[in-house]
Amino acid sequence: MSSAARPDQQLLERLRPGYLAMSEGRIEEWLALLDPEVELHQDGAIPGTAGAFVGHSGARAMITELEEAYEGIGWEPREAYALDDGRYLVRVHVSGVGRESGIALEGELGHLLTVRDGRTARLEVYRDWATARRLAGLD
Q: Which domains occur in the chain, in start order?
């Protein structure tokens, strides 16, 4: 188990603006926080996703994919952990409405971030918090 067993409030506050930018549709602001060659990987258990995206063009494609499936998507980071290997684990509350179903969705995702030179170089999105914690070595 990682020694980073407690949430880091300062880290959470440093990450919050990026999630807010994404929630508010300020995509260029969000992209500025990503490495130009960022790798984005979504859990295969998440329906309606291509799974992997690369670079800023890939990040835009991921956003387009999400906007086609959901409206009013909100991302709220709730906990953040600095892991021993330099990555960050973030518990994210996500909400939105399915475009086809009209059903409101809410849930907890896990984001595992690798940061290089102050920008996110890799983002792994896990469908549930328990899986993300386990894969990050916290459980």
A: 9-136 (3.10.450.50)
